[in-house]
Amino acid sequence: MSRKIEMQIDHRVEILVAAAKEEALKSDLRSAKMSAMIVDKKLKTIFAKTHNRRIMGENGKFSIHAEENMLAKYFKSVKDRYIFIFRTMADGSIGVSRPCRKCYKLIEESGIFGAMYFNKDGQFVVEEF
Ligand SMILES: [Zn+2]
Fold first, then answer.
1. How far is the CA of 78 from the centre of ligand 1 (A)?
2. What's the CA-to-centroid distance between 69 and ligand 1, angstroms?
3. How far apart are CA 87 and CA 118, in angstroms?
4. 67 CA to middle of ligand 1, Å?
5. Which CATH number is 3-128's, of 2.30.30.370, 3.40.140.10, 3.30.565.10, 3.40.50.2300?
6. Is the dihedral of CA 112, 93, 31, 17 positive or negative?
7. What separation in Å is there between the alpha carbon of 52 and the centre of ligand 1?
8. Which of 16, 40, 84, 119 has its CA 20 to 30 A from that of 47?
């Protein structure tokens, strides 16, 4: 069972949002530009940043989610850290960045301390596993 809390957006979160937005804008997906970052519990250090991207497969195009990309690369360095998941919309606003079911499972099983994302009501959520 996870513990979910809504968190106020403070100065530390604003800095993370700015970094996450910059990373998400590197995505080649048009409408779902997302990023994932591994951050420490104090929200002061960013250890790694990834974004989602489009892949050409045998059955056409599909995308690798930012979280999948992150956990594939930095699987060993997630303990006692958070994954900060972010989505930027075409108009520059913050989108819903709750992980999909597949990524949620990956995150939960990775041994990471918690996940941070924006829910459909625009609230900043911290979920600890
Ligand atoms: Zn996903």
1. 17
2. 10
3. 8
4. 6
5. 3.40.140.10
6. negative
7. 9
8. 119
